[in-house]
Amino acid sequence: MQTSAASTPDAAKTVRGAATRRRLVQAAREELIERSGSLEVDSVAARAGLSVGSIYRHFGSRAGLIGAVVDDFYSRYRSEALEINPAPGARFSERERKRTELTVAFHYSDPLARVILSNLHLDPEVAVKEAAHIDAMIALAARVMALGQRRGELPKDRDARFVGAMIIGGMHHVLTVALANDPPIPRRTTTRKLWVLNASIMGIPPDHHR
After folding, report:
1. Are 103 and 171 in a shared domain?
2. Which residues contact 19 (CB under 8 A, 6 or more apart)?
3. Model pLDDT for residues 126-142, shown as the tens digit of each residue
4. Can you list the alpha helix ranges (DSSP code H) found in 3-91?
């Protein structure tokens, strides 16, 4: 009788390893939120019900574990707001306004956003991880801007790469300020003002979607 690949010892180890990684990332996420960016490996291991050694086996270091949490955060953000068409069939300005709304909603709904935007870049290894995600997001935004220019929906006198960088960088810094405020600036206010900024950078009126 043949044995399926999923039931082999190596496959079982892979499944268990992935499950262990998820438990540790979730525990580290909870720890970072509760302790405002502070993390101790002993506490994370206890929270996950695993040994401290499992952290080093799977992530190599404390910074590697935090980097995995950052990877998860930005991967979810990109898949939920940036790497989708948020308004199929709509005009460019309407799609990008909706993308701005999704971006703000994602950051306001995830308590880890405030921690990542304000604290974790101080760790050099984590900063490298974050920078890689930001570079990828800028490249994606530049492609979207260039497409809008080719379709005649955006002015062609602006460098799409600069526009992409200003939008991603602007959203990052505006959200940092909004969430760091005590209490946070109201979500609707942040969304409205951020869209005015983005529309200005792209060269379209902020109410052009209507």
Report:
1. yes
2. none
3. 888 899 999 999 999 99
4. 9-34, 41-48, 52-59, 62-77
